[in-house]
């Protein structure tokens, strides 16, 4: 870019940046910002699922359970997640052998072999992750199905 043109752009850019960030205490409240993501999941923050509001998405799905319980969607085993200092549990089941479900934020999670409909525990803000076994034996986070998530929230 020619030198004169870069100087001509510098002043408007400086003014624009001052207008965007403003001066401290200016009382300017920024408007909403739209960010287009490459990956879009069906569950988005603000959505409602079985009467609960989704608090986050794209990765762990966080719900505000308001102290209510979660239920086993099928027969399976609940065990503590390694290295999570009793903050997270892993649910596995022979009904869905290619998947694991990580749940964080439960109070007094019930561990061991549980049957469908049995309470896993309760919590306020609870984060779910759905993991799928890859061909090489590792696990990858995948988008959870809304119907599957609802099964954790409603006793059959």
Characteristic key phrases:
single chain, 156 residues, alpha+beta, Glucose Permease (Domain IIA), 11 strands
How far apart are the termini? 67 Å
C-alpha Rg (nearest Å)? 23 Å
Q: Characterize the main sheet.
A: 9 strands, antiparallel
CATH architecture of the domain at 48-153: Distorted Sandwich
Can you tell me the CATH class of the domain at 48-153? Mainly Beta
Mean pLDDT: 75
- Residues in helices, as a percent range: 10-25%
- What percentage of amino acids are in beta strands? 25-35%
| Tally of separate helices | 2
Assigned CATH superfamily of the domain at 48-153: Glucose Permease (Domain IIA)
**Secondary structure category:** alpha+beta
- Overall, the morphology is globular
Unreliable residue stretches:
1-24, 30-39
List how many beta strands DSSP finds.
11
The CATH topology of the domain at 48-153 comes to Glucose Permease (Domain IIA)
Order of helices and strands: HEEEEEEEEEEEH
Topology:
Blueprint: H1 3-21, E1 48-49, E2 52-56, E3 61-64, E4 69-71, E5 76-80, E6 88-92, E7 99-104, E8 112-114, E9 119-122, E10 125-133, E11 139-142, H2 146-153
Antiparallel strand pairs: 1-2, 2-3, 3-10, 4-9, 5-6, 5-8, 6-7, 7-10, 10-11
Description of the structure:
The chain has two helices and eleven strands; from the N terminus they run H-E-E-E-E-E-E-E-E-E-E-E-H. With 156 residues, the protein is α+β, with helices and mostly antiparallel strands. It has a domain at 48-153: Glucose Permease (Domain IIA) (Distorted Sandwich). Strands 1, 2, 3, 5, 6, 7, 8, 10 and 11 form a nine-stranded antiparallel β-sheet that branches. A two-stranded antiparallel sheet has the order 4-9. The termini are far apart.
């Amino acid at each position: 870019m020619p030198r004169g043109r870069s100087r001509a752009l510098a002043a408007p850019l400086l003014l624009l940046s001052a207008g965007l960030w403003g001066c401290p205490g200016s009382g300017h409240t920024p408007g909403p910002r739209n960010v287009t993501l490459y990956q879009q999941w069906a569950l988005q923050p603000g959505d409602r699922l079985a009467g609960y509001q989704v608090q986050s998405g794209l990765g762990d799905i966080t719900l505000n359970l308001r102290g209510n319980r979660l239920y086993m969607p099928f027969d399976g085993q609940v065990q503590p997640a390694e290295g999570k200092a009793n903050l997270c549990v892993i649910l596995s089941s022979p009904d869905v052998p290619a998947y694991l479900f990580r749940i964080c934020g439960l109070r007094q999670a019930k561990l061991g072999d549980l049957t469908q409909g049995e309470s896993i525990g309760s919590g306020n803000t609870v984060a779910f992750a759905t993991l799928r076994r890859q061909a090489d034996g590792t696990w990858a986070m995948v988008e959870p199905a809304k119907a599957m998530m609802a099964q954790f929230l409603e006793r059959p």
